[in-house]
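During the second year of the project, the team shifted from modelling isolated chains to modelling whole assemblies. The rationale, set out in the original proposal, was that interfaces cannot be judged from single-chain predictions alone. As a representative example for this report, we include one of the complexes processed in the last quarter. Its constituent sequences, exactly as entered into the pipeline, are reproduced here:
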Amino acid sequence: MPAALVTTTAFRTLADNERQAKGVPDLPLLMIDHPLGGEKIEGVTARAAQAAQALVDAIAAPARPAPPPRA
Amino acid sequence: MTERPLMSETIELDDSPEAVDDYFAAHQWSDGLPVVPPTEERVRAMLAAVRRDPQESLGAMPPGWGQATVEKLAINAVMAGCRPAYFPVILAAVDAMLDPAFNLYGVQATTHPVAPLLVVSGPYVRAIDMHVGSGVLGPGNRANATIGRAMRLILLNVGAGWPGRGDMATQGSPAKYSYVIAENEAASPWEPLRVALGFAAEETAVTVFGGEGPHNVNDHVSTTATGILTNCADVMVPIGSNVGWYFSQSQLMLVLGPEHAATVAKDGLDRADVQRFCYHQARRTLGKAKLGGMYGIQDWPRWMQVIGDDATPLPLVPSPEDIFVLVAGGPGKHSVVVPNCTFSRAVTRAVDV
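Output from the structure prediction step:
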């Protein structure tokens, strides 16, 4: 199943660590500028539209080979 | 058991405390305070306090997913300054934290200033000289302080909950250094907490509660349960608290000082009565909720979502049993409320001693 990890920029390190820890370092990562909270609804809607297209592009990309199993 | 080989890397350093602290700090293996060097002899002494295989893992600890082996836990307990007799409490607490209901990933990685509060209840409290009296939430007692510190070192070193990387708390909390209390059974008018939670009186149990720091309840004038508990309930309801917004996992802890508890009990109330009182009295009206906090992104059950009258008082927690009540502390007219982070449920485990 196509999947991607969505995070804001402030949580990039946590997201990278989670991809590594779960053995999917190449899982597509969609970054959204931080912060998202505090935006008024018009701003959130505009950013969501951008992010939605980026998300579609990320999960529609050709699948990469699975990494070797971790020891 | 203790003669089994240890698997951790051995590092040789100068004997000076400064050299050890510099090395540990440089590798981000400490909480910023000096550590006790975890020599093989000390780690083996820690391991000898429990009947467990050093390589047994209690589980993978988020967010770094390091294996919480008994050996790694023992190393951190040594670093924290624990006596070996404290180690069974630490094992039980780690086991509780790794229960999926506790949601340790959320507790570790959230922006909220949550820390696991350990509440120890039972005869082992006296056996290891835990403090239950004046200043129970503060410094001064080796068992309380170092058990709590060991928990934090484990969360940092095994769970990789390093601030800004694995622990994304916006500001954090001093409770993240050490957050341990023990029930003051002798000063409690009610049955012990562990018994109320289904454990035997002769057992010792540790509860882990994903809590904010303590919120004080000052009441020097009330002479009735009505006064004391109305005051306690009022401290439970600020709109800036997480509690009530994410409803299904909202919980509260009420740690009554002995004098407040005695006033409440004198009016004939038992623990269940206190829980029911606070459940019904600690409510935020819909109109107040609309002023801020998490209104608009709250996670409420359907029946709460369709309420339209702004004057309706809404409950903060799903049931009276989601308010933990115990007695700890010494003389004085103070109690504390500990709100939880609302994406974690408290978990209790028996201590194997």
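The first helix of chain A runs from residue 12 to 21. Chain A touches chain B through eight residues (CB under 8 Å).
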